[in-house]
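Look over what follows to help learners.
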Amino acid sequence: MSTQPKRPRRCQLSVPGSSEKMMTKAAGLEIDHVFLDLEDAVAPNAKPAARGMVVDAINSLDWRPRTVCVRINDVETEWCHDDIIEVVTGAGAKLDTIMLTKAKSATDVMFVHLMLDQLEQKLKLANRIGIECLIEEVEGMMNVDEIAACSDRLECLVFGMGDYSASQEMQISTVGATGGYPPDLWHYPRYKMTIACRANGIDPVDGPYANFRNPEGYLKEAQRAHILGMDGKWAIHPAQVELANRVFTPDAGALASARAQKAAYDEALAQGLGAINVDGVMIDAASIRIVKSLLDRADLIGI
């Protein structure tokens, strides 16, 4: 079970770690979460230089996003080890989380966990860096329960449907779209990962939708993820940020109703009643858990 602080994750914006211009722009955004990418957004021969650019950006810019994260390369690559060492050594005091890509097993996550233990001791860092983890390989999805339970640094799992599509050899042409599959193509992996997250007290987050010129498609996928209980969705372009926030921010009317139901239920409990009618809706111990979840999310966001 995670011992890390809870963070809002309505939108996680991807920013190439090799682009000074894009990192500077991202630093000024009022957004829940930004991750500076050292993996897919950076060419292999540019990765060493990008580490230094990411460290400089974290240290020199005035970051407005609530969470600043760095996405590193996976443990089976030649870059993962140096990604962790250079980024944490250079900017660990200002880094909230590290995002591990392509985790296939709990062992992959624990590699990052133990390196962070050692570096934080060595550097005498006051803050404890959290881990976010991408489930984007079929092996990772098969082992998602063990992965979700393996580290108290783990804050969230992200369903990375791009690489997952390739791993399962799905026949689609655009990352995040459902192609010609009549139901929701992503229902099972989203559902499975979300259950693993909730059972272990960490946040489930939905991954990218590549066609940023199709807001309707993005909204549909975000809404599906939201209904299943996920906390947010990636944005691969600033145009998608508002869409994610729209879906994952509790509606003002729903919040007002939830607060009224909670107040009425608390009053009923004090009178020895276990179930009551509030504006034609039956409220009992089970339904109040749904209400409380909505209110907790609103408190986390600050609304």
Remarks:
- The two ends are 27 Å apart (CA to CA).
- The CA atoms of residues 55 and 91 lie 5 Å apart.
